[in-house]
Records
---
Amino acid sequence: MKFNKLSKEKKQHLIVTIVIILAVLAGLGNYLILGGNRHLDTLKQNQVAALGKLEEMQKTIKRREQVETAFKETSDRLTVLESGMATGDLYSWVQSFLRKFQRNYRIDIPQINPISQPGSVDLLPGFPYQQASLSVAGTAYYHDLGQFIADFENEHPLMRIANLSLNLSPAASAAERDKLAFRMDIITLVKPTTAPGKI
């Protein structure tokens, strides 16, 4: 069928029909192409995110040995620290420890009161260890006592001194009139029967 042989009215209908079909096809094509492009963009973003996760997992797998080594070192350090915690007969342990440490200082500690029963740590809630405390009293010169306390807390991080009170020593002779009488609490962590985190 030739276009020239058609009547004017049929030509117009044919042209309108072709224009409508082309418009519908263009709209449909545009919709499908844009939708497809959006879908492709989403797929690319998902692919980038998945590749990022994969890379992170591969890095974690490569760091496994480092993590295991760090965990072993931390466990060993915890074991060493726990070996310095009070254990067994707590009063005897603390008294022996204190007497041994005291030897290097010009400080006199004649009074060591009984130790409390182990209880929860009042400094940190939910701490996996328990603590026990006892009061001690004695005499020393100000500088000697300060050196003793500083060295004690620096060398023994699992123990602390609290409630320190100082007074002039009432029983000091004239030569020792600058001597101080002190009273303080020594708080120590107590080694558990099973290590925290181990079942």
Note: The chain has two domains: 1-62, 85-190.
---
Amino acid sequence: MSPQAAASLIVLLEVLSFGAIFPVMSDYCEQLGSTPESATLFAGIMFALVAGPRIIMNTLWGRLSDRIGRKRVLTIITTGTLAGSVLWALSMPLHSSLGYGLLWLGASRLTAGFFQAQAALTQAVIADSSTPENRAKGMGMLGASFGLGMLGGILLGGIVGTHFSIAAVGWASAIAQLLSIAVIIFCLPETHPIHKSQPSNAPTASPDQFNRLPIRRLLSQKMLTNTLLVIAVMTLGHMVLVPILPKTCKDWFNFDRTDITTVFAVWMFVGVFVQGGMIRPMVQRCGETGTIKIGLFILTTGLALMGAASQSTTIFWTAAILIAIGGSFATPALTATVSHAVTPSDQGAAQGLNQSVTAIGRTCSYLIAGALYVLSPSIPYFVGATIVLISLIFALALKPAQTNEAT
């Protein structure tokens, strides 16, 4: 199996387990002790507990993969996220016997967040094993796998949560993560330049390059820091919908869990279509920076429309599709731009830094969204649209990538 195919499968399986919690998180918070009124706030907190540890840990896991190899670190972290899924499944029986259900659930989310660095490391695998001109395509493959995983996970969570129990979603997620570990061990070749066998004419790097802590050096590179700024601000605005979308569907349109699962499924299907088939011709036509700007404009429009959709399912579905399209154009193009800004020896650290910055945006976004929703369901979407518009203004300063592939 090629590194790109194995990386895509790892992402699909890990995101399958993560996506399964989306349609059931608010309901699980209620089952474990929250009131219906506070369920959205607690759901935002739980999502923030996943994203928060990644602010620090993604960079550290990425740097560790630069030192000991992608394969070893992927095995370690996927075992850790499996433990988080098991603790999710045990939160209900622990609540029944000991109480404090929301604390057990919070512990499961913290555990998952501590180890959830598969996105950063698989992005590093793609950067290791692809040429600069094909980098956006490879990142698009990961994005499509992410979308498929979310689509399958959302369907899985809805089905298991409805026909079995929400606690059982954790066991279903753990099975997916066991399969991911098998793929890592048996199908993923090591791709890091210093840890794999290389052809004699391949560029090499000295061990000293991998022993220096590169974060300060990386952040001194203007192209990288400008791209990370756009990523952070975009994520802050984009991710407002994650903890509040199920509640929005219930409050505005009286959607049940099956309807909410359908909304997420359509959203992810559109993302898969864009990242799996449209991203490459878009980048070829407009370049990566052009694709970023187009994606951010569409995303801003979608979030603004979502804020105005309370009386119209037509506006709601239009907004959901635009949000999916905009995010699916911008995200892989931004990730590819990050990879172009650094040398092969720093890909793990750079993509870890990318995911850490993303985690900052997600953590703040989840907390802000839950709090703003209490004021009005529309406010988080309008605020998100404004923030993404700011990221678009920052993106205007991005210039076509000058790849830094030499070590």
Note: Residues 53 and 114 are 5 Å apart (CA to CA).
